[in-house]
Design goal:
Elements (H helix, E strand, L loop, with lengths): L1 H9 L4 H5 L2 H10 L1 H17 L11 H16 L7 E2 L16 H12 L6 E2 L4 E2 L4 H11 L3 E5 L2 H13 L3 E5 L5 E2 L3 E2 H7 L3 E5 L7 H7 L4 E7 L15 H10 L4 E6 L17 H6 L4 E5 L10 E5 L1 H9 L2 H4 L4 H13 L6 H4 L1 H7 L2 H19 L3 E13 L2 E16 L3 H12 L5 E2 L1 E3 L2 E5 L6 H12 L19
Parallel strand pairs: 1-15, 5-8, 5-9, 9-10, 10-11
Antiparallel strand pairs: 2-3, 4-12, 6-7, 11-12, 13-14, 14-17, 16-17
Helix pairs in contact: 3-4, 3-5, 4-5, 6-15, 7-15, 18-20
The protein binds pyridoxal-5'-phosphate.
């Protein structure tokens, strides 16, 4: 037995023999000698490890080259593949948050392709500032005196705290010590910013006197945090920005307002609850306001810091700013996105985030009705497929209690729940993965964010014909719960 096994393993073609096949020659041309040889070597190792002489016949060198081809193709595909976001979460952090508007995409492409006047004043012919391009726009849209931009809002908060309260104290209400996804915890950020956290009030109630009695000569900043991903309801009190700003001014301590998502326009017209806009936060007297670029604003990842000139200048002088700055590609996209806000009436037509948010339930339900037969045919007889009403959520921690009525398809297994799980896995395994959400023994496909219906139908038919490529690169959170 032992001898036979050895003989058969010896019959496996060598790496060199496989490399000499015609197919391997084309693979070497396309993927390089090293990668091709490695792919073949990995295959042979795998075959040896799984060898069972009773059942195996050694593959031919052509068969091995063929399998190496499949592996190399899979490896060369981007790991960050486009997916269908049918989770019902519009700004899904795990799926890349906001989709950019076309003008922003074009601006980014141009900045990638050509030399741009990033830090160059073309009129004066001398060095300029990279923030110049969007500073005036940000001031115009928020009413602030001055503005600067960093990598994301987490960076904006870190940099501002470090500038204003490094080695000093930062006062914040116990009701606002937030944790948002991805290990952003306010107390930890404070510590890394070198600020000593002074908690005031209680979880549900904080009064003006709590802030006042915490003020000392060591106070560097009063921080107000928009509790964007939770609500404290019931017997609650918080000190509003206007009043807090007066307290801060009286003590000559700056007030920092972290708005989180930060909206530039009133979103109630899209059926959402009223959220304070950045302009209001500035008008209510915060010295600095920070907010995200890729949440409800609908742009690329960025952290905006707007406010009093003296404070923003101090932030810009902080050496940390250099480590947190944004690149030309994003700056170009940010500028183009912000420009769209000059015409709020047309915004919902050009900004994909708002476009998705603004879709009516009846429009989405009509789409679900159109798609139903194709889904039914694709999933096969083991499942029921029905039109359903559901709720989309904003996502990325913005407005957690605010959902918008939506529609989609509800798929249930006629047998075991595990069959629903494997269907969800199959849908994720197609060329452009289809990501729904599992809820209450059903797989829900919420069509709010489905813009390319024909492409979706093509994917479904590839599932039906069983030529889905099996991979496992889909995000492991199909639940729609985004940080
Ligand atoms: C989302 C959020 C942040 C972090 O913003 P990013 O742009 O994701 O870094 C900070 N503070 C609040 C209140 C938030 O909601």
């Amino acid at each position: 037995m032992k001898d036979r096994r050895r003989v058969e393993l010896r019959d496996l073609p060598s790496v060199d023999a496989v490399l000499k096949t015609d197919l391997a020659a084309t693979l070497t041309e396309r993927f390089g000698h090293e990668a091709t040889a490695n792919a073949i070597r990995a295959l042979l190792t795998e075959i040896r490890a799984a060898w069972n002489s009773a059942h195996s016949t050694p593959p031919t060198k052509e068969q091995l080259a063929h399998r190496a081809h499949t592996d190399l193709e899979r490896e060369s595909r981007s790991r960050m593949r486009p997916v269908f976001n049918l989770t019902g979460t519009i700004i899904h952090t795990n799926l890349g948050r906001a989709l950019l508007a076309e003008p922003a995409i074009e601006a980014a492409i141009q900045a990638m392709r050509e030399a741009v006047a990033l830090e160059f004043d073309v009129t004066a012919g001398r060095r300029g500032e990279r923030d110049d391009h969007v500073r005036d726009l940000l001031c115009e849209l928020t009413g602030a005196e001055h503005a600067t931009i960093v990598n994301n809002n987490a960076a904006a908060v870190l940099l501002t705290l470090n500038t204003l309260a490094g080695g000093r104290e930062a006062i914040v209400s116990r009701g606002e010590l937030i944790e948002i996804g991805g290990a952003f915890r306010m107390p930890d950020i404070m510590q890394r910013a070198g600020a000593r956290l002074i908690e005031v009030g209680t979880t549900n109630r904080t009064h003006p006197k709590d802030y006042k009695s915490a003020l000392t000569p060591q106070s560097g900043v009063i921080l107000k945090v928009h509790t964007s991903n939770y609500r404290i309801l019931g017997f609650t009190t918080e000190v509003q920005t206007r009043e807090l700003a007066a307290i801060a001014r009286g003590a000559n301590v700056p007030l920092l307002h972290d708005l989180g998502s930060g909206v530039l326009i009133d979103l109630t017209r899209y059926g959402l609850q009223r959220e304070p806009t950045v302009r209001e936060a500035v008008a209510h007297g915060a010295d600095v306001v920070t907010f995200s670029g890729d949440k409800l604003l609908g742009g690329p990842q960025a952290g905006f810091i707007v406010g009093k000139r003296s404070v923003i200048e101090a932030i810009n002088r902080n050496p940390m700013k250099r480590a947190l700055r944004v690149d030309k590609i994003r700056l170009a996209a940010i500028e183009a996105t912000l420009k769209l806000y000059r015409n709020p009436e047309r915004l919902a037509q050009c900004l994909p985030t708002l476009q998705s948010l603004a879709r009516t339930q009846s429009d989405i339900a009509a789409q679900a009705r159109r798609i139903l037969p194709a889904v039914h045919a694709a999933v096969g007889g083991g499942f029921t497929v029905d039109i359903c009403q559901c709720q989309s959520q904003i996502g990325s921690g913005a407005m957690p209690l605010d959902t918008v009525p939506s529609a989609g398809l509800c798929i249930r297994s006629k047998g075991r729940d595990s069959e629903l799980d494997s269907l969800a896995a199959k849908l994720r395994a197609v060329e452009k993965p289809i990501i729904g959400r599992i809820e209450d023994h059903s797989l829900i496909l919420d069509f709010r964010c489905l813009t390319n219906e024909s492409e979706f139908l093509a994917m479904l038919s590839s599932l039906k014909h069983g030529n889905a490529i099996s991979t496992t690169s889909a995000p492991n959170s199909p639940t729609g719960k985004a940080p």
